[in-house]
Amino acid sequence: MNIAKSAITALIADDEEGPREQLRAALQRLWPELQIVAASEHGVDAWDDFLAHEPQVCFLDIRMPGLNGIEVARRMAATASPPQVVFVTAFGDHALSAFDAGAVDYVMKPVDDARLGQAIERLKARLQKDGGSGPDLNALLKQLLPAVAAPKPKPIQASLGREIKLIAPEDVIFFESDNRYTRVVFDGGDALIRTPLKELLTTLDTELFWQVHRSVLVNSRHIASAVRVDENSMHITLKGREEKLPVSRQFQGLFKGQ
C-alpha cells in the first residue's frame, strides 16, 4: 500500500466528551490529511469501531469503562492488522513509567500541541517505514495488564414467550448479532436477547468464547474445524451441527494449525 498517497485513517476513544473533542480538534489542526473514522465513547465501542473501520492509527484513553484502553489495545494487537497505538493518559497514571521504558507512545491530558506533534511525526515515520505494522506490543501490554481471573459466569436470561429461560454460558454454542438483538444458540434451542454482542464481550470468559467475526462469538469447545474457502475467506464448522460461521480476516490468525 502506498501510504504517501493514501489517507491515513484513525480512531480516537475517550469516555469524556471534552478531552475527546479537544484531541479531535488538535489532530485536525496538526494533521489535517488524517481521516478520523470513529470517535468512540468507551472501550467497548472502541473495539467494535476498530473492527468496523480497521483504522491504521488509534488514540486510546487508558481509563474507560467496559474495556480500558490497554485491554482494547491487547485485542487489537492480536488481530491480523494491528494499528499504531498512542495512549492518552492523565498525569500520574501508573502506566507512564512502563510507557517511558517501552515502545509505546503516549500523550498527556490536556493534549499539548507540541507533544502531540512529536507523536504524529513518529507515527508518520513508522507508517512510511513499514506500511503501518506496529511494534509487538503484547509483552509490554501484558505487564501493564496482568492476567485476571475469568469473570464469574452469570446465566443468560432469555425471554421465550411468558417464560424467562436461564441459560448457563457454558451451554451456549454461539452468539450472533441479529439486527437489534443477539441470537443465543444453546443446547436445546435458540433465543433472542436485547444485550448487544459487543457488551457480552466484557462478561464472558475469553478463553472459552472466541470472537471470530464482528457479529459472532463462538464457544471454542463446540468448534469442529476451520475451513479456508479461498485466500480471504474462512468459516468454521461446529460439532454435530450444520451451521457454518464466518471468520473475518482479522480473526483468521486464531486458526494456524500445527
Automatic annotation (TrEMBL):
GO molecular function terms listed in the Swiss-Prot or TrEMBL record: DNA binding; phosphorelay response regulator activity
Pfam annotation, one family: LytTR
SMART domains: LytTR, REC
PROSITE patterns: HTH_LYTTR, RESPONSE_REGULATORY
Keywords: DNA-binding, Phosphoprotein
Keyword field contains Ion transport: no
Every Response regulatory domain range: 9-124
Limits of the HTH LytTR-type domain: 156-258
Modified residues (4-aspartylphosphate): 61
InterPro entries, per the entry: CheY-like_superfamily (IPR011006), LytR-like (IPR046947), LytTR_DNA-bd_dom (IPR007492), Sig_transdc_resp-reg_receiver (IPR001789)
Coiled coil, from the record: none
Name of the featured protein: DNA-binding response regulator
Species of the source: Kinneretia aquatilis
